[in-house]
Amino acid sequence: MGMAKAVLLVTSLSVLGTSAYIWPGPYDLLEDAYTVSGGFADGGIVAGVQPCSVSPFGFLPGRQAAAEWLRVAYHDMATYSTETGLGGLDASIGFETDRAQNIGTAMNTSLLFFGAFQSKTSSMADVIALSVILAVKNCGGPSIPFRAGRIDAETSGPETVPEPQQDLASHTASFALQGFNVTEMIGLVACGHTIGGVHQVDFPETVQNAITPPNPEGMVHFDNSFDSFDNHIATQWIDGTSTDPLAVGFNGTTNSDARIFAADGNATMRAFARDNEYFTSQCGGLLERMLNTVPSTVQLSEVIEPLPVKPHQLMLSLSSNGSLVMSGYIRIFGDSDEAASANAAAMLVKLSWKDRNDQSNTSYFTSAVAVSEPSSSLWGSVRFFQINSLIDAQSGISSFVIDWAFNNQETLTHSDNGGSGFPFQDVALLQADKSCITPSSRPNPTTTVFAVIRMDMGPVSSAYIDYTSNVIQQGSIAVKQVTSRFPLAHVGNSSSPLYDTYNVSFPTGENTNIGVITFDIVAVIAGKTYASLNNPAIITEC
Fold first, then answer.
1. Are 222 and 193 in contact (CB under 8 A)?
2. Is the whole model's pTM more than 0.85, yes or no?
3. What does the alpha-carbon distance between residue 204 and residue 474 come to, in Å, rounded to a whole number?
4. Tens digits of per-residue pLDDT, 156-191?
């Protein structure tokens, strides 16, 4: 996957089925990818478009990943019909890349990159939407609100993407079917063409004599600031210096931008040219609508923003001496000047917990230590603090709160996850140090998972692993997430008289190196379900 790095969030729920949207939530991995754009715990999406001019995977000269991501999203959305409520941004583009309207390798290249971030809780369609938001922001464009909940299509949509050789009436009709009027059509095209350009290898009827050794695909940029999200596409069009090959190209038949820009007598383009802030503001709203154009049966989430305080890869395990070990990180985010200037090493971060009977005690706390590797965010400042603490297994843990400050001179801020604390269960726990995977070089590779389950709460009526891996879809570069259930077998006691040990070995399968692999450990005791969710794929070899 080249630069792509998938960072996983390990969470624990006290009881499945809670209705309040608190940590952990259904879009934690997407919120991570949205919030952290570099350094420690970086998921790697922004690296694919940093700087804005970078080519896909960093080694395909003459191409621009940010522009290609924007093209993927629009072409995916363009299948929407206001008449039927079908289509829209649903990742059907993975089944449509062999169509003439989707010519070029950009679609498959982008989807291959996005596959590293596809997971049980992050659909390919959500990743496509997020990619546009991060690319546009990284290129200096507007902040586009992000909503999640898109559902991936399992087949292609209609062939309704506009093509350069079509006339204005056809384009107007296509955009109208997608839900955009003439003014909005002009805006969407201008906003989409403020970065990137046209490739001669894909559109020889539009671009000629552009192929050179450093530009092997013959890319001709839309404007003179192809790596900046600004209004130059409009200013150059209005002042007569445009380089847009779809507006002033040698072949009038494919000059679709010229026809679209002038569709209202250039009124929209003149307004864009006069005011860059107006241009970016209008683009933000139009691109948000584009990304939120989904099948009528899909309900998107509320806007996802960086959580001020969030656990990261925080987990509980049983040590060899019978104590519980809480390990992982706490993330602190802020968008103030104080947050930007804070020294992580001087920040105070304290985690306090309640025992399994929901009782507090002055001894139930630990201090977090700043991670030395810095992190960055497109939206503010983000820092991570490491937790490593022993917890008495008899008293256990049910939830925790975080008290923190940007420096040791100010009053601590109390973060309680919306009022009831951060839920943290001590019933079903992964034993990562004992779990392993047979090397893929061996025939029939398997994953072996060890877990411990608390035995003083009544009989365990059910215990199992829900393992989510990835399978190739016929006709699409995008993978499909598939969850398989494997029962956990009781194999004996543990280092603590309070826990029994369980394990299971199951086939790892093929193609599991694509996308994010996670598994849940679930136990049903006395009618209640407890789970350690979204554990990352086991990588230690047996």
1. yes
2. yes
3. 30
4. 999 999 999 999 999 999 999 999 999 999 999 999
